[in-house]
Amino acid sequence: MGDIIDAVGEVFSTHNPMQEDDVDLNAVVCPDWFGFARRWTLTENDEPSRWVKAMPGASCVLVFGMLLVVYSQVSSFIAPTGRDVVWVTLTLTLGVMLICLNRVAAELPRLLRADGELATLGLGKTKISATAFAKLVMQRRITRFLQGASVVCAGFASIGFFMAIAWPFIAPKDSVNMTFAFLTIISTSSAYLLYTLVPMVMEFNLTLQVAAELTADATLELVTAIKSISPADTEAWEKQIEGPVLALADGPVAVLSRGWSRGLGLSYFGFWTISLAAFAGFSQLLAQVMSAATPMRVVGILLMLLLTVALVTLPLIMSGAVAEVSTCCDDISNAINARRIEDLDRSPRLLALELALKNLNSNQGLGTFAALLLLSTD
Fold first, then answer.
1. pTM, two decimal places
2. Per-residue pLDDT, 261
């Protein structure tokens, strides 16, 4: 993760990477953007690295430890308190999140290899608008900064492991076993999550943003062509409109849906599951504040509420770029309909193309699918 730490400074850089691109309004996303992710997830032969192959085993060991802790907690319950419920909820949801994010990180080798989905969409070759490129540059800077912050937080989480080691020497004997096991598994899982899985999920999100922009720019070019080319020019219409529009459905849009829908769906499930634990902690602290308010409890409520909202909205932010692509696809249909209104005498040909687009994806139209849903920002 040294590459992540080195890249954090990019966020505060005063260099404007768009100054040369403001002239011709075209830019190409460089494959080197994902260089460190390729080194971590792929071998020289574009095969999954040992680290990627070891992740499922590491996650299974941690989840098994969590289940043992939960079993110990539940079996010792006589009159469970709100704190006991929060601990069990946190342990279970953290295990689910580990499994989900592990699968999201495992998607990266397939996306980043030389013949992967990003390469198919034209990474390093296809030009995009200067505005889109500037947005991606800022997204990359923010991603690198958050990845660096995640690694730093992993170091703090590791402190809990050393606290767990020291606990048997300072705690009452009747609480040694339970607290030792809880601190060990939670601190180890949190450190593993923050040091490996969270940065890789952020990298997955960055690949999603790049893929979405590459696809969105392709749709915008078609919208411009539809507005400028008349159906009266049959040859130009077939070559520059009908063929590319139908190819878009089977090409970039299909690649985007196939490549990122599973990872995005798992991100939703993982983050929304762990948000249950944050909400349980918020509810427990709220009950305590209602009985006896203290400054620390009030601060805890605010932090838990903020964490719950962040975990719920994070997947929605990730899917925003995909929704933008679906909206661009709607713009294609709207442009075709507008052209049909202008050329009513050629309406049958335009209507056939319009109906062909509407009948795609089980009559849901041209769009991108994530977690089996057609997304749109409308």
1. 0.80
2. 86
Which of residues 232 and 134 earns the better pLDDT score? 134
> Domains of the chain: which residue ranges?
2-374
Q: How confident is the model at residue 12 (pLDDT cuts 50, 70, 90)?
A: very low
DSSP 17: T
Distance from C-alpha of 319 to C-alpha of 326, rounded to nearest angstrom: 11
Distance from first CA to last CA of the chain, Å, rounded? Answer: 39
Q: What does the alpha-carbon distance between residue 357 and residue 332 come to, in Å, rounded to a whole number?
A: 9
Burial of residue 32 (CB within 10 Å: 0-12, 13-18, 19+) is: exposed
Cβ 105 vs Cβ 196: under 8 Å: yes
Burial of 146 (0-12, 13-18, 19+ CB in 10 A): middle
What pLDDT, on a 0 to 100 scale, did the predictor assign at position 28? 80
pLDDT of 179 reads 56
Cα(351)–Cα(242) distance, rounded to whole angstroms?
12
Tell me the pLDDT band of 5, cut-offs 50, 70 and 90: very low
CB-neighbour burial class of residue 317 (10 A; exposed 0-12, middle 13-18, buried 19+) = exposed
Unique residue bearing structure tokens 């499994």: 99
Could you give the CA distance from residue 141 to residue 143 in angstroms, rounded to a whole number?
A: 5
